[in-house]
Amino acid sequence: xxxxxxxxxxVSHATLLLGIALVALPVWxxxxxxxxxxxxxGVGHIPLWFGDAGLDTWKTVxxxxxxxxxxxxxxxxxxxSLVMALGxxxxxxxxxxxxxxxxxxxxxxxxxxCFWIIFMTLMLPVEVRIVPTYEVVANxxxxxxxxxxxxxxxxxxxxxxxxxxxxxxxxxxxxxxxRIDGAGPFRFFFDILLPLSRTxxxxxxxxxxxxxxxxxxxxxxxxxxxxxxxLVMSIKRMLSVTDGDIAWNQIMAxxxxxxxxxxxxxxxxxxxxxxxxxxxxx
Amino acid sequence: xxxxxxxxxxxxxxxxxxxxxxxxxxxxxxxxxxEQAFYQEDAFxxxxxxxxxxxxxxxxxxxxxxxxxLTTLFFSFSVAILGMSVALLLAVMADRVIRGxxxxxxxxxxxxxxxxxLAGVLWWILFDPSMGPIALWLESAGVDWNHYLNGxxxxxxxxIASTWKQISYNFxxxxxxxxxxxxxxxxxxxxxxASPFKRFWTIVFPLLSPTTFFLLVVNLVYxxxxxxxxxxxxxxGGPGQSTNTLVYKVFEDGxxxxxxxxxxxxxxxxxxxxxxMTVIQFRFIERKVQYS
Lengths: 282, 292
What we know:
Chain B: Its main location: membrane. Chain B: This is sn-glycerol-3-phosphate transport system permease protein UgpA. Chain B: Residues 69-281 form the ABC transmembrane type-1 domain. The structure holds 2 protein chains of 2 kinds. Chain A is mainly α. Chain A contains 14 helices and no strands. Chain A has one domain (74-280): MetI-like (MetI-like fold). In chain A, α2 (54-64) crosses α13, α3 (74-105) packs across α7 and α10 (198-213) packs across α14 (270-280). The longest helix of chain A is centred in the N-terminal third of the chain and has 32 residues, at 74-105. Chain A is globular. The longest helix of chain B has 34 residues, at 63-96. The chains are: A mainly alpha, B mainly alpha. Chains A and B meet through α1, α3, α4, α5 and α7 of A and α1, α3, α4, α5 and α7 of B.
């Protein structure tokens, strides 16, 4: 603090509190709405204070069925989301670690070309090439499968760049020392490189988990079977019920449950999250 | 880095998974889109004929496409500017306070983790004309709110939902930028009698310009490509064409309209745009590295 200006400090706190309130507003509303019976919404407006049907709604949605045309319970879709998110996260980290390792620690023909091919994936987000990618996956018979949910999304230029950056900062002497001591490429990778990249991997894990969990368009397109619905995309299916029949309390409870895991990850691993966010943009 | 391992075959083996996935799910579809863009397919996908540049000519003579471009530009800049302004204000305040900084940060950054589609649904309901608390409040204030019918209001709604999610990101980067501003500069200005307001506009804000520019690019990319869920879960491009952004249009024309050639042509145009943005982003980052 440069100088003491009490009124400005008060304004600062007030602005921040207002910001927090605005940011939290939709979630507050969803939480309140999920505690009222479905019939409360037809009559005019969303109630402003908690009702007493909360426990019932949450229990039904989580354990029995999500409602609004979806017969599978939320916890089941949560498992699907978890499989997809972890599949994408581990897949991305694994193949990016390997390719960054190859690019930094080996010399071979077309090395730069390979790097550029990986770089190009940055320019082709799935939203842009959606129709042909769908056709490719359909041709490979991967619709309605976990492989189809994860595999097409695991190529990652960002992760490869990040690990490349991280590997480049490892001093050459270390590699030399390892080689003199008789460590081959595998030994070096597992005993030196992986332990040194631990924090980077963890930070990236947080970011990629959020990315994977929040996938929307892709699962929406390739899953038509309830058994593979993921939680985030199921909201869209729930909303497509005819207007009068929508049970808003169930939708709100499902929405909250769908955002809970990634939000918990961000709050619980805030330091790693911030690091991952900053790293990923370098 | 000069020390390497001598193996010749191993690096290919290590690269294989990444290259395979890239080839099968990125390059192949991209090539398909390129090819498809020059063909016209019948509605059942049974036959197709080569039409040269006709799909592109059709696209660029279609007033709807230009409208969608304008919609996208308006939407993206609104999200970027609104999100950055709010985040900058909050970051400046958070940079000032001494007590509870981390708590404020925690309570402001969590929306980053909320999926765009869910953000869309939440705001959609808050503004619902028949039951949403905000819509009812607006009504009592004399605003006739109905985003089902009014295109401008639908646009405002998707902008708010998309911005809400992005504030956290901007906030973190602005806060980091603010903390990097040398204290001595601000102290000197303060001894010279510059008010906090003046210090911000003449010293801090100019020093933040690399962060601001970086965030502008990132926000535009976000608004272009990652807000698909917000639009799809709420307005579906409507009412009319009022929230039909370029990325949404590719999906809609391809999967709903089944105009595969037209959709592919749009994909090709979008790939060009992403390519351009990526280059801008990277040129800028190179420059940032030099300055730091």
